[in-house]
Write a structure and sequence with these properties.
345 residues, alpha/beta, 7-stranded mixed beta sheet, 14 helices, 20% strand
Length: 345
């Protein structure tokens, strides 16, 4: 697989206009199961065709149980300078429900070990609204985050997916379904709590101390170009073209052996581009730049848009600040629905 990834990097070396990379992200699946020398060889391959900005952010997604001392010792010798750790919770009953391989002790110790090896730029994932949790437990999860001096948090409401054990348990009434009202309460408590401790709530699900916002995700939210390498990886040219690689590992490798990039491409219509820009931008505290909208889209699209936002501006569901359209934070829990009301269909 490493050889195939290197081959794809070579074949797609001209896909990015900006050859000076500001971020590099090892994510999707469990990249921390790779050996450190494999990660290093991929970085070296990237450097054959791209340059790194002097303060590039290079992130590795990792599970707590993968971050043992030997792995971290080797990792600290590479260019990787940010870890995104799939903590989920600091309580065993939550982790058992989520079918996580690690326990609460490993969730905490993995963060401490990473810090001992010099990794200060750490993000953790936390899940709220679990039926095995409650408001007091959620507060303890957040207190533990502050105690561990983690500078970035990505947090999501527990969702019940079809064909999962959790869905079956709920159907069989072995466990209660997540309650939206509780998730709403925990979301807004988290927002105020983390802001009180120096975090910026810069995207609905993301909180970072100044200087620790995710550059990788921020580029995505601002509709910048990005290139995804590997099975199932997605790419965007910053304009009207989106692509994704096939998911099947064998077909992915076979295609590259024939010097063919294993991707499918979609050309976005003007309406698609407009809808995507709204959906992504309105999830952030930057909002949507109205100057960019006026420059990018035609009168027909903008006429519809200006008409639709008037009602929500009057109701206080939207606001305009420094020529950016935003959703007030008190309405962020409903952001996707608010954005979809403005879509071109």
């Amino acid at each position: 697989m490493i050889a195939a990834i290197k081959k794809e990097i070579f074949l797609r070396k001209d896909d990015l206009q900006d050859k000076n990379l500001k971020s590099l992200y090892f994510g999707g699946g469990t990249p921390s199961i790779l050996k450190v020398d494999e990660l290093k060889s991929i970085i070296d391959e990237v450097l054959k065709y791209f340059s790194f900005n002097e303060d590039i952010e290079i992130t590795l997604e990792a599970n707590p149980d993968d971050l043992n001392q030997p792995f971290l010792r080797e990792l600290a010798q590479t260019e990787i300078n940010r870890l995104s750790i799939g903590t989920q919770s600091f309580f065993d009953h939550d982790l058992k429900l989520m079918n996580r391989a690690h326990n609460a002790g490993e969730a905490e110790s993995s963060i401490k070990r990473a810090q001992d090896f010099g990794f200060e730029n750490i993000s953790i994932d936390l899940i709220y609204g679990s039926p095995t949790s409650n408001f007091e437990i959620w507060k303890e999860n957040l207190n533990k985050t502050i105690e561990l001096q983690v500078p970035h948090v990505s947090s999501y409401a527990l969702t019940v997916e079809p064909k999962t054990a959790l869905n079956q348990w709920i159907k069989q009434q072995k466990i209660a379904a997540p309650k939206e009202a509780e998730q709403n309460r925990e979301f807004y408590y988290m927002s105020e709590f983390l802001k009180d401790h120096g975090f910026d709530h810069y995207e609905i699900s993301n909180f970072g101390k100044p200087g620790f916002h995710s550059r990788h995700n921020s580029a995505y939210w601002k509709s910048h170009e990005y290139l995804g390498i590997g099975p199932s990886a997605h790419s965007f040219n910053g304009g009207n073209e989106r692509s994704w690689n096939i998911a099947n590992n064998k077909l992915y490798i076979n295609s590259l052996e024939k010097n063919t990039v294993p991707k499918e491409t979609e050309i976005l219509s003007e309406a698609d581009q407009f809808n995507e820009m709204l959906m992504i931008g309105l999830r952030t505290f930057w909002g949507v730049d109205l100057a960019v909208l006026n420059e990018k889209f035609g009168d027909e699209v903008l006429e519809h848009f200006r008409k639709e936002i008037q009602f929500k501006l009057a109701d206080g569901i939207l606001l305009i600040e420094n020529n950016h359209l935003k959703i007030p934070e008190r309405h962020w829990f409903m952001a996707d629905g608010i954005a979809s009301d403005l879509f071109i269909v």
